[in-house]
Design goal:
heterodimer; A: alpha/beta; Rossmann fold; 6-stranded mixed beta sheet; 6 helices; 6 strands; about 25% strand; B: mainly alpha; Cyclin A, domain 1; 3 domains; 20 helices; about 0% strand; binds guanosine-5'-triphosphate; binds magnesium ion; GTP binding (chain A); GTPase activity (chain A)
């Protein structure tokens, strides 16, 4: 919430940002903390993806994020491309108390670097930093993985709000601001035009 | 007894396009609660030989709460499936208990289920609503943004969680290739909110996942892509103008409809409306889901046409669905949108299947070409 701000000046840039990572690592919680300043002990599991927007004010510009918070369960993997397609930035989230989620995070980074937008800005977030006593992934390890792969890393806690705004602000700073209003393009699932049985009835329902 | 007048009423509302459309709250005949109750009793007794028009008319009147469990179970075929394999549910639970005692591989599935039990909030909105004297408006079943503190008694809650756990674990054991997929938790929880027996909920879930939503929960989730293509095509025929607008906004059908199909509208519609929709899904054939989806496209048409960017489009769509009256939605789905026969649906799905596999292979081609050109590989 603290990051929300009225436009600092006339220059507003809009970017698509996607969150990826294993189920229950805290993707929705990070977004909810950032957008609404809220946290819930039991956050509803995400199906498909949820969409939210939030703005970040930098010195003389405003960055508006169009955020896609995706479902983390492995089964939903095949849906992910339609959400990260054309994304200018991605936050890959893992849970510092669960090593498997770190491995899964690395796979997401790899997939984004291969199949995502070529100039995508990727952040790796080690979430649940408030649970330090249950830690299974050391920040040094994640940091060195991140620098080897040309992405940046932060530990966060959606629960305590630690580093949450900082994470989004850091991404906002890294995004290129030379071209005004970069609009993601590309081809996703286009609604198929067909002359079906239904066509006869179309008039009745249509505007 | 009521059949002929019900059919007559339906014909009236169909052949008189201007008349019953707006402001008419029953969309057909006026039902007294007693007449409606009798009609459902007759329909149940007449199964499986029931005229579809007669079901439509009764659905527009509504299913009495007390009859809902039987109506869902018997019309859907779940009751018959349960009767045919009376020990299956208990056997599955035993199998689950044995395998978790021996600490075998199911643990990943079980921990995913465990993670989600408390992250399935429709349960609270449904069960808690009447006892708290709150209208079942579903305000708690909202997506992100709602959440939070448990309400209701502690033991009530743990009992509800236990039933949800058993149903999901039994299903995962029943169908290891599908196993547990998020979305099922919401469907199971919605079923449990109405059915007293967890066993009945298990059988309904089995039916929904294995027969009605074929391929939606499979490893590739191809069924979802296929149905999104079908919905896209039908919706374009229904309103070409809307389809153009969506393209201009870069809003694809899967962005709108994935949750509809994977959760069957749980926490998309208010709870009371959800029940009306499920009444139709479970009493009618497989086309009903698509007709409801098409009706939803009509509901969200106004905000979508007014939207100037993706955010407004998706936000507007979500809000309008969250305020949708179940009776009105059913009327649109059953009376206004073009009726889709089972054969039509199958034909559309064949076409959708083609599109979906084309998409999958072009994505795969991209993956391979990028992988070849990439030196990141070695970095791991
Ligand atoms: N202690 C602690 N718990 C957290 C934190 N962030 C999230 N959680 C909890 O972890 C659980 C999962 O959080 P979600 O935000 O729903 O996780 P997700 O990544 O969106 O999960 P999916 O939607 O299933 O992909 C919730 O119960 C949260 O309360 C955190 O920073 N610290
Ligand atoms: Mg989530």
């Amino acid at each position: 919430m603290a990051a929300a701000a009225p436009p600092a000046s006339g220059r507003v840039f809009q970017f698509k940002l996607v969150l990826l990572g294993d189920s229950a690592v805290g993707k929705s919680s990070l977004v909810l903390r950032f957008v609404r300043g809220q946290f819930f002990e039991y956050q509803e599991s995400t199906i498909g993806a949820a969409f939210l927007t939030q703005t970040v004010a930098l010195n003389d510009t405003t960055v508006k994020f169009e955020i896609w918070d995706t479902a983390g369960q492995e089964r939903y993997h095949s849906l992910a491309p339609m959400y990260y397609r054309g994304a200018a930035a991605a936050i890959v989230v893992y849970d510092i108390t669960n090593r498997d989620t770190f491995q899964r995070g690395k796979q997401w980074v790899k997939e984004l670097q291969r199949q995502g937008n070529p100039n995508i800005v990727i952040a790796l977030a080690g979430n649940k930093s408030d649970l330090a006593s249950k830690r299974k992934v050391e920040p040094e390890e994640a940091e060195s993985y991140a620098s080897d792969n040309g992405i940046f890393f932060m530990e966060t806690s959606a629960k305590t709000a630690t580093n949450v705004n900082e994470l989004f602000v850091a991404i906002a700073r890294k995004l290129p601001k030379n071209t005004p209003q970069p609009r993601p393009g590309g081809s996703g699932i286009v609604i198929a035009g067909q002359n079906g049985q239904a066509a006869a009835e179309a008039k009745k329902g249509c505007c | 007894m009521y059949a002929s007048s019900a059919i007559a009423a339906r014909w009236l509302s169909v052949s008189d396009p201007g008349g019953a459309a707006e402001g008419d709250l029953d969309g057909g005949r006026e039902w007294t609660p007693e007449a409606l109750d009798d009609e459902w009793a007759e329909l149940l007794a007449a199964l499986p030989n029931v005229d579809e028009d007669r079901i439509h008319a009764a659905l527009l009147g509504g299913v009495p709460d007390a009859k809902r469990p039987r109506v869902w179970l018997e019309f859907s075929g779940a009751a018959q499936a349960m009767a045919a394999r009376p020990t299956l549910y208990a056997d599955l639970l035993e199998q689950v208990a044995a395998s978790s005692a021996s600490g075998r591989a199911e643990t990943a599935v079980h921990s995913q289920i465990e993670n989600d039990l408390r992250r399935t909030q429709v349960d609270r909105s449904a069960r808690g609503a009447s006892s708290r004297g709150e209208r079942a408006g579903g305000s708690r079943s909202g997506g992100e943004g709602t959440g939070g503190e448990g309400t209701g008694g502690e033991s009530d809650e743990s009992e509800a969680l236990g039933a949800l756990r058993r149903v999901l674990r039994a299903f995962a054991a029943f169908s290891p290739s599908v196993s547990y997929v998020q979305g099922m938790n919401f469907i199971a929880s919605g079923l449990l909110s109405q059915l007293d027996e967890a066993e009945a909920a298990f059988w309904m879930l089995t039916l929904v996942v294995a027969e009605r939503r074929v391929g939606h929960f499979s490893p590739t989730m191809r069924g979802n892509a296929v149905d999104c293509h079908v919905l896209g095509a039908l919706s374009r025929a229904d309103c070409p103008h809307l389809a153009e607008r969506l393209e201009a906004l870069d809003v694809t059908v899967p962005l709108l409809a994935t949750r509809w199909f994977l959760c069957l509208w749980v926490s998309v519609l208010p709870h009371a409306s959800l029940l009306r929709v499920w009444d139709a899904l479970f009493t009618l054939g497989p086309s009903a889901t698509m007709q409801v989806a098409l009706a939803c496209m009509r509901v969200i048409r106004v905000p979508l046409l007014a939207a100037s960017d993706v955010g407004q489009a998706l936000g507007g769509a979500k809000e309008s669905l969250r305020a949708t009256d179940g009776g009105a939605l059913l009327r649109t789905a059953l009376l206004d949108v073009p009726r889709l026969s089972a054969a039509d649906l199958a034909a559309w799905r064949t076409r959708g299947q083609q599109k979906a596999s084309e998409e999958a292979s072009s994505l795969e081609a991209l993956r391979r070409s990028r992988a070849r050109g990439s030196s990141q590989d070695a970095a791991r």
